[in-house]
Amino acid sequence: DKKAYYRKNPQTSRYRYINDQFLELNNPQVLTKFLAEGQFPVYLQPKLSFSDRKLAGAEALVRYIDKHQVLVAPSQFIPVLESSHLIYMLDFYVFHSVCNILKRWIDEGQEVIPISVNFSRYTLTQTNFLQNLKNLWKSYDISQNLIQIEITEGSESELSAEIVTILKEVKAEGFSISIDDFGVKYANLSLFTSMDFDVLKIDKSLVEDVAKNTKAQLLIQTIVELCKKLGIQLVAEGVETEEQFQLLDRLSCDLAQGYLFSKPLPLDEFTKRYLAAI
Ligand code: C2E
Ligand code: MG
Ligand code: MG
Ligand code: MG
Question: Ligand 3 centroid vs 102 CA: distance in angstroms?
Answer without folding.
Answer: 22
